[in-house]
């Protein structure tokens, strides 16, 4: 995770957890008030188990937003993934709290009966979708706000060198000798002026943040290029370009108009 990812989680999770806790307390008090003869430990177990599982599942909308934000996936793909994940989220919540309640009752020498799942799951899903959607919105909003704050912050000093951690070895190279960086699964590949192509386990977005002050720009979801090493731009049709950097050619997607403007010097 990048530092920004950790900050989004550090700010968003406590907010969601606090909301879930307040709702849990209100539900317990309401149940005890409406059923005076009921053992108060029972609604505490019911609502507490639901709140505990929800607290863990808050990580799901954060992970989805992080994936969509960091990978810059198309909007339709991100929305499709989030919609498909909604019923999975709800089922995980239902079976999670059922397991906790069953275990709690068993420890107390009792037996927990929840009722028919055919009626319970649609009821729980109607509530879960609201919480799931609220989590997506909160983490998206935090990601956007932190990104804007980072963009407005003064850039760090221009790094003269960059350390590439290639396995157990560290390769220190001048930033000026890095032609481009490309994503390779869970790794990034550095294309160096001397022809070397070392790999480092990292997200491309993390390397982008480290090299932004060195004059690197994202030209494609999988590529960063060193503006100072660009020797030419070749139109590829439909608004796309090929970026020439000595013996290396990188793609420039029409989805990155700011990169094209910077490379042209506009």
Give your account of this protein's structure.
The chain is an alpha+beta fold. The mean pLDDT is 88. Helices cover 55% and strands 20% of the residues. The protein is built from 7 helices and 10 strands.
What structural class do helix, strand and pairing data support? alpha+beta
Overall 3D geometry?
elongated
**Which regions are unreliable across 5 or more consecutive residues at pLDDT < 50?**
none
Q: Tell me the Rg in angstroms.
A: 25 Å
Instruction: Kindly state the percentage of residues in helix.
Output: 55-70%
Task: For the structure shown, list the relevant keywords.
266 residues, alpha+beta, OB fold (Dihydrolipoamide Acetyltransferase, E2P), 2 domains, five-stranded antiparallel β-sheet, three-stranded antiparallel β-sheet, 7 helices, 10 strands, 55% helix
